[in-house]
Amino acid sequence: MCGIVGYSGPQSAVTPLIEGLRHLEYRGYDSAGIALATPSKLFIEKRAGKLINLELALGNSAPIAHSGIGHTRWATHGGPTDRNAHPHVDNEGKLAVIHNGIIENYTQLREELESRGHIFESETDTESVSHLLSDLRKAHGGDLAAAMREAVKSLRGSFTLLAIHADAPEVIVGVRRNSPLVVGLGNGENFLASDVAAFIDYTKRAVELGQDQVVTITPEGISITDLDGNAVTPREYEITWDSSAAQKGGFKHFMLKEIFEQPKAVADTLLGRLSAENKIQMDELNLTTEDIRAIKKIVVLACGTAFHAGMIAKYAIEKWAGIDVEVELASEFRYRDPLVDRNTLVIAISQSGETMDTLMALRHAKSSGARILAICNTNSSTIPRESDAVLYTHAGPEIAVASTKAFLTQIIAVYLIGLHLAQTVGRLTGEEVRELFYEMTELPAKIEQILETVEPLRELTRGFAQSTSVLFLGRHVGFPVALEGALKLKELAYMHAEGFAGGELKHGPIALIENGTPVIAILPFGHEHGLDEKMLSNIQEVKARGARVIVIAQEGANVVGAEHVIRIPSAPALFQPILATVPLQVFAYEMAVTRGNDVDQPRNLAKSVTVE
Ligand code: AGP
């Protein structure tokens, strides 16, 4: 997945393009490049590595041009080199293309184009589109949009493409299939981008492009058609957040800022959800009482951190609503024969709303008749658009690659759904719902309390920076928290980390414990099954084998055998993940900083994974 931006207007295009790329760098940072359309030729500069390399290469050398396209890359086909960086040009050097996604039939296209005399410079799938468009544009008498419409008909895969030609420098043409593209409507200038963050400093008016639609922008206006050239009326909307939400606001890293934004994100996601009659307000679910009573099974589909939120959904929904919940990695779902039908409610969880694995799984479930409900943090992204209903989380833009505030709000969203279903099927009374909701409204202040006292934890973390492996133990809802703690540490600190269910320890993982191995145990609380005692036994077991044990425990809990205890406020058992996750995020953050890693842009990763 990559970041794409296009500009056409009166400004010197290099400025909005570079600023746009800065806001999109979270989408990929293997290389960056721009094409500027000067009246007779294209100026291209591209560099492997982060955006700063492109900026250094540009210095003051960029010519004045009033339109151009820019790209930041997460490498798929072809390594992260200057040559494979986008834009890719045709053999005349007059047509440039940038691309997010994968052209699945590029090998065949390349062979055909090479047989017609085209010479390729890179190993990318994208370059085949530059050559193809070049031929088609000539065939269409210089009409780039017509060429794009025809080109797309012969492409397979998922993609957003932008193209520009030196002979019509003001015109930028874009298209999208299974990959995002938004149009920014300015005053005498227009923008194209993968995400509104790229142009929010210039305009808050946007148009979302539909599947297989082709858009043309010039300074004067935009036009949209389907692939047959039929005009499409743009649906304009107003971007509701401010550009300051996508800036660090005095924090050293976006991740740290986002960790500290969690109390507000949780509070915002809860806002207005309980009616005066003690009913969870969920009108956007579009489910009647009959629909809910007809649900036989819920299947949660998600990836990575969102999958961990899905695991928590199982505990909450089964407990409160008594409906069977399966949680499945979206990337695996459609490769077996999943049993879903019209009585299945599928919940697709995704911060970005663009994760290809989740999207494909959702489509598969939909084709089997299931009703799809998305939990998403990004307005009008593809997953909500393709779902029957959407529950938006209100975390605000999450820029750091490592998900933090989105995770907590996803968990809140599944709690709300669980309570709503439970109330509708008559398993919880209004009074019980009100009490649980009240407990949830206490969570932001409790997160705040944890964040006010993280300094000793940060110091403690630094003492473990030389460790090669960290294990996380949890039970019940603490198990997904352990998995999340391990995922955060892997992606940020590049350390071996694994999360285990405490009870599984003796079935194999305990062999990993060596003298000095750090083990972080989340002590369950508020359970009727005495799970805390079982975890305390697990702690003794690892300690006896030389582990250094850090325990996350609620205030007042009796902890034996720990080298360090991190105290968190108490809450009902099911709400524990909202609190217990926070110290683990801080642990991973501090470890990454101590080890000198790039916190917001960890190696090999990108924020939203728009390829399968
Ligand atoms: C977590 O820190 C990750 N960066 C990653 O696991 C992420 O949660 C996953 O790729 C799913 O993304 P989504 O929520 O945007 O679908």
Considering the chains and any ligands shown, give keywords for the structure:
612 residues, alpha/beta, Glutamine Phosphoribosylpyrophosphate, subunit 1, domain 1, Rossmann fold, six-stranded antiparallel sheet, 19 helices, 24 strands, globular, binds 2-deoxy-2-amino glucitol-6-phosphate
SS-derived structural category: alpha/beta
CATH superfamily of the largest domain: Aminohydrolase, N-terminal nucleophile (Ntn) domain
Total number of beta strands: 24
| Overall average residue pLDDT | 94
Helix content: 25-40%
In the CATH hierarchy, the architecture of the largest domain is 4-Layer Sandwich
Low-confidence stretches: none
User: In the CATH scheme, what's the topology name of the largest domain?
Assistant: Glutamine Phosphoribosylpyrophosphate, subunit 1, domain 1
3D shape: globular
* First-last Cα distance: 10 Å
In a nutshell, what does this entry contain?
By secondary structure, this protein is an alpha/beta fold. The protein contains 19 helices and 24 strands.
Walk me through what this model shows.
There is one protein chain. The chain is built from 19 helices and 24 strands. It is of the alpha/beta class. It has three domains: 243 residues, 4-Layer Sandwich (Glutamine Phosphoribosylpyrophosphate, subunit 1, domain 1), CATH 3.60.20.10; 194 residues, 3-Layer(aba) Sandwich (Rossmann fold); 146 residues, Glucose-6-phosphate isomerase like protein, domain 1 (Rossmann fold, 3-Layer(aba) Sandwich), CATH 3.40.50. The strands form four sheets. An eight-stranded antiparallel beta sheet has the order 3-2-4-1-10-9-11-14, with helices on one face. Strands 5-6-7-8-12-13 form a six-stranded antiparallel beta sheet. A hairpin with a 6-residue loop joins strand 7 and strand 8. It is globular. The relative contact order is 0.09. The mean pLDDT is 94. 2-deoxy-2-amino glucitol-6-phosphate binds next to helix 9.
